[in-house]
Design brief:
alpha/beta; single chain; binds NADPH dihydro-nicotinamide-adenine-dinucleotide phosphate
Length: 416
């Protein structure tokens, strides 16, 4: 018997809800809550009658501390699953601490308003000290470690595919003493639109228009956006251009697997996507700073989000596959070893199963599994942790069982 409060009803939350409902033995009751209750009700309507999981819905603004605490106290969940946006991470962690409930999310904290002077002062200090300039970093959430420990509660951060599964892959490979890690995220899907993002456009465009960085010999190396490009022949997809990005899991892997000499993250992008993005950036559409327009304050990137296709609507039209995984290199017993752990996911197969494309699916399934690890006590220690800090075996087993089977290659093509 366990009860989860799921905050968010977007593309990823849709998959989480479907997968929790397939796993009713663990998720006996769920409550779906967001600011727009009608989207929560629509998700409930899709599943009701097809699952043993008891579904309720609620309206809540997660930034409203009292309202969120009131909902948590009323529903009394064993776990709060934050499948809303990174902007809400700290607010939801605060409410979990106050109400004494475990927490998990799929992306680490970044502020909505990057012009906030108080946040900016801390951010600029961190840029200088650490040497990478992404808006997101783990420090904000790691600062809650003692509080969660004292409260005897667990917080699991970033339980999607990347971050999430990529870190479980690293923990799994760690046994084999590897020295370098390359995370490769390839979306070979085609949705037929000239330009659209596969998950929340604001978060996605912020991430890919930022400088890239990687971890090497104990420090960050930052490079201009999209400055390092490689071609890679992905299994079941073929040759794709991929670019080195900064990505959140590099930060926690560098901390928790210090023996890794180099950690890089690459994501594939087509030329058309990059040309659209550059143009939007050049005209100021990716800006997060509000401007005055005909008497209204508008934030350009939020306006752009309103124009772009809703990622949750891409499911029926996206064809092709994703291939996401990690390549490890190292020496064991004096011999050079190479190891590639990856998952291939088919957009249309995901759509047939849960009504979503593979990007939401590859995030939502690990989020359900992370929730299951906490609810069944397999991953359970007071404090704030990322996925590589737990035993990878039960998670790896669950990936095979719940729709994201992994494959191994002991002689992969390496990335130079
Ligand atoms: P969507 O924009 O589709 O959905 C976000 C949901 O959050 C909406 O239902 C929205 O509803 C709700 N929400 C936003 N603000 C609030 C608030 N203040 N209170 C309550 N609910 C709120 O996003 P996605 O589903 O595409 O992405 C969800 C998360 O998954 C993001 O954090 C994203 O970064 C992460 N992600 C992680 C990946 C990984 O591999 N780890 C990969 C892809 C995404 P409403 O506005 O009505 O409140």
């Amino acid at each position: 018997m366990s009860r989860a409060l799921i905050i968010g009803a977007g593309g990823v939350a849709g998959v989480v809800v479907h997968k929790c409902c397939q796993n009713s033995e663990v998720f006996t009751e769920i409550c779906i809550a967001s600011r727009t209750k009608s989207r929560c009700d629509a998700l409930k309507a899709q599943l009701e009658g097809k699952t043993k999981t008891v579904i309720t819905t609620a309206q809540v603004d997660a930034m409203d501390h009292d309202a969120l605490c009131a909902l948590i106290r009323e529903y009394n969940p064993d776990l709060v699953m934050n499948i809303a946006l990174p902007y809400q991470d700290l607010a939801i962690m605060d409410a979990c601490l106050e109400c004494g409930v475990n927490y998990m999310d799929t992306a680490n904290y970044e502020p909505e308003d990057t012009d906030d002077p108080e946040w900016r002062a801390i951010y600029e200090k961190r840029c200088k000290e650490e040497g990478f300039s992404a808006y997101f970093d783990y420090s904000w959430q790691w600062a809650y470690t003692e509080k969660f420990k004292e409260a005897g509660l667990t917080a699991l951060l970033g339980s999607g595919f990347d971050p999430g599964v990529t870190q479980v892959f690293c923990a799994y490979a760690k046994k084999h003493q590897f020295d370098t890690i390359d995370i490769l995220d390839c979306n070979g899907g085609d949705h037929g639109y000239p330009f659209a993002t596969n998950f929340n456009p604001e978060i996605n465009l912020r991430e890919v228009s930022a400088p890239g960085s990687y971890w090497e010999n104990g420090h960050w190396v930052e490079i201009p956006p999209m400055a390092i490009k490689r071609e890679y022949d992905f299994k079941e997809i073929g040759m794709k251009d991929m670019y080195l990005l900064h990505h959140e899991e590099i930060e926690s892997i560098a901390k928790n697997i210090p023996e890794a000499q180099r950690i890089r993250f690459f994501m594939t992008f087509g030329q058309s996507y990059l040309t659209h993005m550059k143009c939007l950036e050049n005209v100021g559409m990716l800006s997060t700073t509000p401007i005055e327009f005909e008497g209204h304050q508008i934030v350009p990137i939020q306006f752009l989000k309103a124009l772009l296709p809703d990622p949750a609507s891409l499911g029926p039209r996206t064809v092709g596959k994703t291939n996401i995984g990690c390549i490890f290199t190292g020496k064991k017993d004096g011999k050079e070893k190479h190891y590639y752990l990856y998952n291939i996911c088919d957009h249309q197969a995901c759509y047939r199963e849960v009504g979503s494309q593979a990007i939401s699916y590859t995030t939502g399934v690990p989020a359900m599994i992370g929730g299951m690890m906490l609810l069944t006590g397999k991953w359970n220690k007071p404090g704030v942790y990322t996925a590589e800090e737990f035993d990878p075996d039960p998670f790896m087993e669950a990936l095979n069982q719940w729709g994201l089977p992994w494959q191994e290659d002991f002689d992969p093509i390496l990335v130079d």
